[in-house]
Sequence to fold (98 residues):
Amino acid sequence: MTIVTIEAMAGHELGARVQQAFGAHDGFQCGYCTSRQIRSIIGMLAEHRDGRPSAATEDLVRPAPLTGAEIRERMAGNLCRCGAYNGIVAAIREVTGA
Fold:
């Protein structure tokens, strides 16, 4: 098993882009959930790339487009005390072009 820290994400191309988008879209405020959110985004994008469905996926044969509903479903296990969910979704959309 490999453990990847938030600090290591800065050296990862996608991780660095996600961190930059988080700042641009106010995806974090207090910092309570930031490291978990960013690591979850990387994992969520890998699952999506591999064609894994989510509970919001309508067609289980093809990968679902990353709509707002799809992103929110895939990130649903992450709690944000500040309620920065809209900024988090905006950051994901910027990184993915969705």
In short: The mean pLDDT is 85. The CA atoms of residues 10 and 38 lie 10 Å apart. The helical segments are 6-9, 13-24, 34-49, 68-74, 85-96.
